[in-house]
Specification:
about 65% helix; 19 helices; about 525 residues; 2 domains; mainly alpha
């Protein structure tokens, strides 16, 4: 756990970042990806406010990045995806540096070549597994969450080693750590699952040494408040709406607080309901990385040679375990990406495990690592092929949506797509200036005060007049079917109350259907 960042590690980290970035750019489609990619493309292009928790730093830093790329002739969809690719490549650079740090501590006698191979082999597997490739090739926040976790863990291990070497941590170190924790919280609230155990470990080491004056805590808190001030961006737009903004964000402090705390997603906490495709990814990719990584982190705790390093390994294990526990108790249909940071900590733990194999620095040991590395490349090839197929599937899906969109007349009407991907149609309206007379909605947002006001002002009717909201419970039998029926009832209610046409848009069933008026 050397606190320094040797030149060889810096060069290797830069090389890993550049190579991975090149692969991700190659696999990035020219069309907007799946999931929330359309929404994030829109907010990055316009500087708007996405769904809770708002991710202010992601937008504030990503918006000028995407504007600059677009000015160079790159389309908005690709520019937004490249912001994710940059986050993924930075994460891998930090992950390599973290693995090197842990490998040097585990076996200082091991040769530099052996340690580097021990770090690169698991890293190559991780870099091109489907979960990371998917998020690195579309507009998403997950790669920047991963970059923060890897960077924070790398910094944490360096601070631990400095303490172990007898150095004192001063106000500058406290400010740096506080700033890093604040950056995590300003990006995604789940960063607390990592910041908390790592901070607790640092405090415990300082208290044991009786070198933890209150001023250090105050400096760290003050530094954390600097990036946290970015949440003011969301508060500002609550009263000064952006061109593209999450419809449930309203001009009240209660709405702002609910947005930044993700209150509307508390419904999902306490259950686990992945989709069929996600279950396959969990079984074939996420769980093998996760559970092997947790074992390797426990091995690190057991092999630690002194209390400082043992506490550091315990903190890393706790962080990975907390991420896993939260994810497995979060009932969204796409939980697998939330496990990627925990998987990354396990990948870092693989480096010292390989570097500690007896004889690893001998010619035979190094040759064995080279063979293992080549075998790893063979495992990566199918994943790269899957990435190519996913790129083509994204392009095909875009053609399908475009053809369905073309079938809708440009006259005033309400288009309802019962999916968060309705932002894709908004993308056509905002970024391509297509069919501005249409109001594109999703039924889940009829309860938004802003959306209800919009419909009342434009069409003179309240879409929820006389509508009774049913009660849903996480994990209840037939929940998915009940929600579908609820959405259908909402659209039927809207169709009754407004005079303009209401058009159903459902790519899953290849339907563009204007509802009959009663």
């Amino acid at each position: 756990m050397n606190a320094a960042w040797p030149r060889a590690t810096r060069l290797a980290s830069a090389a890993v970042a550049l190579v991975s970035l090149a692969v991700y750019v190659w696999l990035t489609p020219s069309a907007t990806g799946m999931g929330d990619a359309s929404e994030f493309t829109l907010v990055l292009a316009t500087g708007g406010v996405p769904h809770p928790t708002g991710y202010p730093l992601y937008v504030l830093l990503g918006h000028p990045f995407c504007v600059a790329l677009h000015a160079l002739g790159i389309g908005w969809s690709r520019a937004a995806a490249l912001w994710s690719a940059l986050g993924a490549s930075l994460a891998l650079a930090f992950l390599l540096a973290l693995g090197q740090r842990l490998a040097r501590a585990a076996n200082p006698a091991a040769g530099a070549d052996a340690r580097m191979l021990a770090t690169l082999i698991p890293l190559a597997l991780f870099a091109f597994q489907p979960l990371l490739v998917a998020d690195a090739t579309r507009a998403e926040i997950n790669t920047w969450s991963l970059a923060w976790v890897c960077g924070a863990a790398w910094l944490f291990v360096g601070l631990v080693e400095r303490l172990h070497a007898g150095e004192a941590l001063g106000r500058r170190d406290a400010a740096t750590w506080g700033l890093v924790c604040g950056l995590g919280l300003a990006h995604h609230l789940t960063s607390v699952l990592v910041a908390l155990p790592l901070s607790a470990a640092l405090i415990a080491m300082l208290v044991r040494r009786r070198t933890f004056p209150p001023t250090l805590a105050l400096v760290a808190i003050a530094a954390a408040l600097v990036p946290l001030a970015s949440y003011g961006f969301i508060a500002w737009h609550a009263w000064h709406p952006a061109r593209v903004q999450w419809p449930l964000l309203d001009a009240s402090w209660a709405s702002v607080l609910g947005h930044v705390t993700g209150r509307q997603y508390q419904f999902f906490v306490g259950s686990f309901a992945p989709s069929t495709s996600q279950r396959e990814l969990l079984a074939t990719v996420a769980f093998p990385f996760l559970f092997a990584g947790l074992v390797l982190l426990m091995l690190g705790v057991w092999r630690a040679s002194d209390p400082d390093r043992r506490l550091a390994w315990l903190a890393l294990l706790a962080a990975a375990s907390l991420i896993a526990f939260f994810t497995l108790r979060y009932g969204v249909d796409d939980p697998a990406p939330y496990l990627v940071p925990a998987m990354a900590l396990g990948v870092a733990a693989a480096a010292p495990a390989l570097a500690s194999i007896p004889g690893v620095s001998s010619r035979t040991g190094t040759a064995a690592l080279v063979v293992a590395g080549l075998a790893t490349l063979l495992l990566v090839v199918p994943w790269i092929r899957d990435g190519i197929e996913e790129r083509q599937a994204t392009l095909d899906y875009e053609q399908t949506i475009r053809s369905m969109w073309a079938a809708i007349p440009p006259d005033t009407a309400i288009v309802s797509w019962a999916d968060d991907r309705y932002f894709r149609l908004r993308e056509y309206q905002v970024l391509r200036s297509e069919k501005p007379a249409l109001l594109v909605v999703t039924p889940d947002l009829f309860f938004s005060p802003a959306m209800r006001r919009t419909i009342r002002e434009r069409f003179g009717a309240d879409p929820l007049e006389g509508f009774v909201m049913p009660h849903f419970r996480p994990g209840m039998a037939g929940l998915s079917e009940a929600i579908s029926r609820h959405r259908e009832a909402l659209v039927e209610s809207l169709n009754v109350h407004v005079r303009v046409p209401v058009i159903l848009f459902d790519p899953g069933k290849s339907i563009v259907l204007q509802l009959d008026k009663p």
